[in-house]
C-alpha cells in the first residue's frame, strides 16, 4: 500500500483497501498513541481555512502536533494575501515552498481541487462549500468500524439538511461501496438530497433507499442515525432558514423508538437537532466520533507523508 504524495479531495479518491489501511493504522494509534509521538518529527502541516471550523481544524492541528510535527496556517483568510486578491493556485504554490502537506477548507466547491492540481504537495479537502468533506467521512467510518467491526448490512438514516450538508454527500458516496446497505433519507422537501447524489451514487449502485419527511415513522428500522445541522450559511434568505431550522429534534422520547444498538452520529456542531438529554444515552456517539476524527487524521497525515510503513509491520 502506498499513499505517499496523494491528495484527498473526495472519499472515492481512496479504494476500499486504502481506507481499511488507514483505519488499521488509526486503530494502532488509538491503542498506543505514545508510539507515534515522533512519527512526523521535522514535518510541517499548513492549515488553510477560508471558512469557520472548530473540530476539523483543531483535530488536524492536534493530530500533527501529537505526531511530533508542526503546524502553520490561517483561520482568518483576510489576514493573508487572499485579502489582496491572490489566487488559490498561487497561494498553494507558495505554501508548498514551506510545508510538506496542506489542509484546505473553502466556501467554493472545487477550490481544494484547484489547489491540488497546482502542486505536488499532498492536499486534503477539509470541506468545500456544500460539496464534499472526505475527512469527516473517514471519521464517520472509523466510528462505525470501531462500533460494529463492519460496514455491511446497515440501514442508515440521514436526517436534516441533506441538500447543503457536505458531510452527508461524502458519507453516502463512501458507504455506497459496501454490501447490503440501505439509505433512509429524512429531510423537509426543500432540503432533499441533490439529484446528482441520488442518481449518480444511490441509483447507479442500485442501493435501496426511501425519502421521508417524518423521523418517527422510520427510526425503529435504523442501525445508524446520522443527524445534521441545517446549514444556515448556505441559505439564500433568512426566512427559509428560520422556517426549516428546527425541522428535526432528536430527543429521549424518539430514542425510545429506536433499536437498542442504533448508533447516533453527528459531525457537529449541533444547534438544536439533538436534545442535550440524548448525550448520556450510550447510543450517542458524536463526541467519541469527534475524538476519532483526530486519530484518523493522524493516520491520514502519516500515510500521505509516507512515514507509516514501520508502524504497520506488527
Ligand atoms: C461539518 C462541516 O463543516 O461540514 N462540520 C465538521 O466539519 N465537523 C458539519 C457542519 O458544519 O454542519
Characterize the structure shown.
With 314 residues, this protein is α/β, with parallel strands linked by helices. It has twelve helices and nine strands. The strands form two sheets. Strands 7-6-5-8-9 form a five-stranded parallel sheet, covered by helices on one side. Strand 5, helix 6 (166-175) and strand 6 (182-186) form a beta-alpha-beta unit. Helix 1 (16-31) crosses helix 5 (134-148), helix 3 crosses helix 4 and helix 5 (134-148) crosses helix 6. The longest helix has 20 residues, at 286-305. The radius of gyration is 19 Å and the shape is globular. The two termini are 15 Å apart. 45% of the residues are buried. The structure holds N-carbamoyl-L-aspartate.
Short overview:
With 314 residues, the chain is α/β, with parallel strands linked by helices.
The profile of the biggest β sheet is: 5 strands, parallel
Per DSSP, the total helix count is 12
Average pLDDT figure:
96
Low-confidence stretches: none
Q: What is the CA-based Rg, rounded?
A: 19 Å
> What share of residues are in beta strands?
5-15%
Number of strands: 9
Which small-molecule species are bound to the chains here?
N-carbamoyl-L-aspartate
Helix content: 25-40%
Main sheet strand line-up: 7-6-5-8-9
Shape annotation: globular
Structural class: alpha/beta
**End-to-end CA span:** 15 Å
